[in-house]
Each structure stands twice: as C-alpha cells, then as structure tokens.
Amino acid sequence: MIGDQYFRSQITDHRSHFVAEMSIENRERLELNRHIAQLLKCRRCPGMKSTPVSGGAIKSDIMIIGQAPGPREPVLQRPFAHTAGKTLFRWFEEFCGMNEAAVRSKIYFAAVCRCFPGKNSSGTDRVPAPDEIRNCSSWMDDEIGILRPRLIIPVGRLAIMQFIDCAKSAGEAVSFPYRLESLIGHKFRAKRAGYRFDLIPLPHPSGASPWHKILPGRELTERALKLIARHAATRELKVNLESTNPGILMQD
C-alpha cells in the first residue's frame, strides 16, 4: 500500500512538472505571437520604404540576425528571400545538414532593421541610419528576452557590429577596428538585454561582396559554419526536428 501511494505520488509530481513546463512553453509562444503582431504594425521610421518583414513566431534556442530586408523580402514576406538567402541556406545545408525548410521552421529570424531602407544614390541598398537602427533595437532586445537564445548568429558587418560591445561587456577581447578576419571563424560569449549567449558571426552572403569566396574569408566562413554545426543548440535542434519531421534533414 505504501509503495502504491509513493508510486502514485511520483506520477502526480511528474504530471504536475510536465503541465508546468507546458504552461511556460505556451506562455512564451503567446508572448512571441503578440510581439510579432506588434512588430508588424511598427511605423517608427518614415524613411523606410516598406513595412516590417518577419520570419514568424518560431520558438527557438537559435537566432539569425540579418542586416535589413532587400526590395524583394517585403513582397515575398520572409527574410533572406533572394540571392543572399540562397547562399545562406546552401551553407546550412552543406555544413549543418539542414535545408531551407528546416532552417526556417526551427530558427528565429531577426534583423538590425526590419524594413527595406530603399536605395542610395548609387543604386545599391541604403545602409540604415543610426536613428533607424536605434528605433529597431528594442524589437531585438525584446526577442532576446522572450527567447533567451543559447546561440545568436549575426550575418554581415552591420549585424555583427550590434553585438561587439555586448561581447566586450561579457569579457571577450575583440580587436578594434573589428576586421572580419578577427571575427569570422570564432565563437564569442556575449550579453545583451540582460541575457548571455554564444555568438558566432557569419559574413554577409550577398554577391555584392566576394569576401566569403576568397582566402582567407572562404576558410574562415567554413570554420564559422562548422562551429555552428557543432554547437549544442544546433545538435539538439536537429534531434528535435528529425523526431517531429522524419526525413526533413539532409543525409550526411
């Protein structure tokens, strides 16, 4: 009888713990959905040429931080929807065994600025102004607070620069003037919005820059992608993905 009572109490405790975990998970998803809804309504920057672009409310331990949407992303309503995206997802497929569908379904996409800045006088995409970056920074801070990611992957120099001071505040030695050669291919410990996380920068995959195609950029980019593939958050994500979507991962 005593053994039966103990066994039933253990089951009850386990169920209570499971329900509590599910409740936290549901609250976080609800909070993330509300955040995305508010983000899509943002009109803080009158100089922007589109409304915000979002990758959706993906609950994840990993965040990819882009720079800003190009002209096609607002039309297609997803980040990294054109040439740079093809290269980025090819990298993940080759080094992490995750195709585009897998990456988009399991990794949260954010950006320094969420709207298309428009073109500059030379016809290339305009770099967001400092006030536009400040206006948008609170969205990223809120996302870090909601997701509490274990790994953040900033893509491109503008995205990387948003985290350099965060890495310094976490005790990492990052050399000025932050040449890509000193950043790509390394893992840093960073802190932002009150949370600590690992930071593995990637160069921008745009065809406008050949840095990731020539030495030493090519080797450093490969080293960074291998660090991402070996990170515990990536490995656990892949296990979860395969258990819920058998066959979605690329075969080694």
Keywords:
alpha/beta; 5 strands; 252 residues; Uracil-DNA Glycosylase, subunit E; five-stranded mixed beta sheet
Task: Describe the protein in words.
This protein has helices spanning 2-40, 73-76, 83-96, 100-106, 130-147, 157-169, 217-230, 232-244; strands at 62-66, 108-111, 151-154, 188-192, 195-199. It is of the alpha/beta class and 252 residues long. It has one domain (42-244): Uracil-DNA glycosylase-like domain (Uracil-DNA Glycosylase, subunit E). Strands 2-1-3-5-4 form a 5-stranded mixed beta sheet, sandwiched between helices. Strand 4 and strand 5 (195-199) form a beta hairpin. Helix 3 (83-96) packs across helix 7. The termini are far apart. The model has no long low-confidence stretch (mean pLDDT 89).
The outline comes out as globular
Helix count from the secondary structure assignment:
8
Helix-strand category:
alpha/beta
CATH top level label: Alpha Beta
Give start-end ranges of low-pLDDT stretches.
Answer: none
Helix content: 40-55%
CATH superfamily: Uracil-DNA glycosylase-like domain
Distance between the termini: 53 Å
Q: From the coordinates shown, what is the CATH architecture?
A: 3-Layer(aba) Sandwich
Provide the succession of SSEs. Answer: HEHHHEHEHEEHH
The major beta sheet can be summarized as: 5 strands, mixed
CATH topology: Uracil-DNA Glycosylase, subunit E
Mean pLDDT: 89
Record the strand order, biggest sheet.
2-1-3-5-4
Q: How many separate domains? A: 1
**Beta-strand content bin:** 5-15%
Would you count the extended β strands for me? 5
